[in-house]
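Kindly inspect this chain:
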Amino acid sequence: MPVEIFQASRWTRGNFLFPTVIEVSDKAVIRRKRSWFTKDEISMSIYKVASVHIKTGMIWSDILIESSGGSDPLASHGHTKSDAQRIKELIEGHQALPANRSAQERAD
């Protein structure tokens, strides 16, 4: 499956020079945050995602992706409302795929 990439707006705090990027694939969610001399990358397996919390303002949305394993959540701010909703839909869709496959295999 293809990877979808979502970049935070450069107009938001902390994203002017190096905007935060969230990648969603069928295996993992990855948040990448760069600065002048460092790169901070956090990844979480799709199957370890416990919840996706979206806090929407007038223009921008904050996203908090929590893990069922108790590790630090993935947090990002400055995404559009539609990008935040799409991230949530992708994660929920990828989590539902194995359940759909096993139910289909049992029916066959």
